[in-house]
Amino acid sequence: MRRPSSIELQLLTVITLWALNITLTRYILTHGFQPLAYTTVRYGLAAAAFVVLTVAAERTLRITRSDLAVAGVAVAALVLNQIGFVYSLRTTSASVIALILAATPLFAALIGLALGTERLSRRFWVGAAVSFAGVGLVALGTGAEIDSDAGGILLGMLTAITWAVYSVSITPLMQRYSPFRISAVVLVAAWVPLALIGLPQTRSQTWDLGWEVWALLVFATFGPLLVTNVLWFRSLDRIGPARATLATNLQPFVGAMFAVVLLSETLTAVQAGGGVLIAAGILVVRRRGTATPPGE
Fold first, then answer.
1. Going by C-beta distance under 8 Å and a sequence separation of 6 or more, which residues neighbour residue 277?
2. Fewer CB under 10 Å: which end of the chain, C or N?
3. Which pLDDT belongs to residue 290?
4. How many other β-carbons are positioned within 10 Å of the β-carbon of residue 215?
5. Buried b (16+ CB within 10 A) or exposed e, 170-189
6. Does the global pTM surpass 0.85?
7. In 3D, which of 209, 192, 177, 236 has the Cα closest to residue 30?
8. Percent of the chain's residues with pLDDT above 70
């Protein structure tokens, strides 16, 4: 049996940590941390770590003036992404959000179409229709809880869309800057509005949350946020976005399974069927042979 290559191991690590982060965040938010206070602390720690690493390695955080507009789009998308992410997990189960995030690559392709960087075939539209039907099944699978979960499902869709915008906007910057510099600049710039928006929650936050919550927050910061950024950008550089993003098809199912096992969440047959349709639609799209920007 062939041993997995280093790039395959990197991608597997990224997908596992991203999937686990959904469950960890759901646990943290249901055990005392307010959504925006959590985001403020987490992104503050990650931004500081990236600044230290980048300055130590490159001696500069400089981004040229011509790239500031592109970086600004990425920052705005990331701010909305994180607000959608934490509030979707505050109101909806981690397994449902994990399945909804599977639609991210389709949104990235649609954005590419709007920007003229993608040429979408009939195969794409068939795959998109199948995947969005799957999203509908995931939503309907909440049954009697659909009214209370509707807001969380919409926020999950916002999270997927904004991550697609972030991925598309960050791609050209990867040709000119290292993963460390991109992450340092974008995370610091995104942390400022997140901290300002979250200031009321941060001020009212109770910090006596127990060592377990704090340990999970540290892991969620330096694992799914810091380590994955570096590994993901390196993967994109070595094999390109088209091949690298194939691995993201695993994330929704791994994330849902983490939620079922670690949080004892229930995944209905209808929701599981919706997840299968989402993945099937994405596989149809992937076979069209054109490059797609990275997903979440």
1. 130, 131, 133, 134, 137
2. N
3. 39
4. 10
5. bbebeeebbbbbbbbbbbbb
6. no
7. 209
8. 76
Q: What is the DSSP string of 47-74?
A: HHHHHHHHHHHHS-----HHHHHHHHHH
Q: Convert the pLDDT of each residue in 110-154 to its tens digit.
A: 777 777 666 667 776 777 677 667 766 666 665 544 444 677 788
- Counting every residue written for the chain, the total comes to 296
Tokens 């209370």 -> residue: 148
Residue listed under structure tokens 């040229």: 64
Nearest 5°: the CA angle 287, 291, 296 is: 95
Rounded CA gap, 14 and 140, in Å? 30
SS3 292: coil
Which amino acid is located at 261 in the chain?
A: V
Quote the pLDDT of residue 141: 62
Q: Is the separation of the CB atoms in 95 and 259 below 8 Å?
A: yes
Q: Which residue is listed with tokens 């300055």?
A: 55
